[in-house]
Fold this protein.
Amino acid sequence: MKRLETSKETKYEEYYVNLFKKHINKIIPGSKIVKGPFNLHHIPDAWIEKEGQLIPVECKKDNFTLKALNQLLRYMDNFKAKEGIAVGKKINEDIVLPKNIKFISLEELEKFEEKQV
């Protein structure tokens, strides 16, 4: 099992997933973390519910790449989700997110945490 690190240089993906979950109401008002459907081959980092809709979340500690986008799109397709949440350092320049996917930067997540201190 990975140990959660808090130094800026060595933060693991779980750190950002937990940060997203901790500040979900500030990030996406009116939403909450929920336990979503389970499929051994399709496991998003988190599920949120907003206005009765389940939304998968895919979080990366580095850039959000085409591989990550395809992963999120696969979750959305498999679970018939109309929207998705992408989290990462930034979006790779070679991709354009569909309009139904919201991007949240790691910098934005860090700002929510800094405001609490």
User: Anything to note?
Assistant: Residues 7 and 84 are 29 Å apart (CA to CA). Residues 66-78 form the longest helix (13 residues). The radius of gyration is 14 Å.
